[in-house]
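Q: I'm writing a short methods note and want an example of a predicted protein-small molecule complex. Could you take the sequence and the SMILES for adenosine-5'-triphosphate and return the bound structure as tokens? Please keep the output block clean; save any remarks for afterwards.
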Amino acid sequence: MERPQGETFPQTVYHLKTAGGPPAVEIKNFNLWYGGTAQALFDITMSIEKGLVTALIGPSGCGKSTLLRCLNRMNDLIDGIRIEGRISIEGSDIYAPGADVIAIRKRMGMVFQKPNPFPMSIYENVAYPLRVDGIRDKALIDATVEQSLRGAALWEEVKDRLNESALGLSGGQQQRLCIARAIAGSPEVLLMDEPCSALDPIATAKIEELIDELRGQFTIVIVTHNMQQAGRVSDNTAFMYLGRLIEYGETATVFTRPLAQRTQDYITGRFG
Ligand SMILES: Nc1ncnc2c1ncn2[C@@H]1O[C@H](COP(=O)(O)OP(=O)(O)OP(=O)(O)O)[C@@H](O)[C@H]1O
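A: Understood, no commentary inside the block.
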């Protein structure tokens, strides 16, 4: 990552809204390198509050997606990656030797930029995490599919066509289906990487409403380019710049009275 000459990085400024209990995720002194020398994350320390929505914002290439992908060890799939530091979910270190990566990914549901329904029916998409778990009980699967589709605000639109291909849904419906599939696996945390970037404004508004409805039931971490969206949906916002966590605090404060000069410069459009 390029670092402008002479640039210095003061300590992260914190002013979090806390949820009261222990955090869902704790990240401590976390560093990541792609391929030996290209450091993408620098000494990130932050806690993600349980049941709240946390937004990761910052200019392109600042490490938002990299950090998000560390939370379910998706970066493990990239050759030559090296990490230092610790990430724990509900107290257990997900990078500890012998940690069960499949179990970790189940605890951290993921929704990607582009909706990625499987080429199967609407019903089977949502039933998928249960089938992978070896669940055969039809009544239980039916109930979970309905509950998850209701949870993702899609049930009314698809209840009469559950056996039709998911690929026939609109982009916004497909994204809500992917959220239903993620919910059906009963994750503790939902990770969303720019979930609205491929959607039109109406579909985007529906996903934002949905995030609001899911608040409290799940801990949500959302990467977004869209500052208005971060302002609308999140409780806490983490502003990242060149792989550093510059400011992490209550969203309303980050957007109206940020405590770090660099955050101020970014939200007022001085760079980005
Ligand atoms: N697979 C990879 N291999 C090597 N370098 C990578 C890889 N993925 C990301 N990077 C680098 O890591 C840095 C952070 O990238 P990342 O995608 O996490 O940023 P971002 O803030 O999510 O950007 P954007 O908003 O553009 O998606 C960038 O310099 C990027 O080039």
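A: Remarks, as requested: The chain is about 35% helix and 25% strand. The pocket of adenosine-5'-triphosphate is lined by residues 1, 34, 38, 40, 58, 60-66, 78, 225 (CB under 6 Å).
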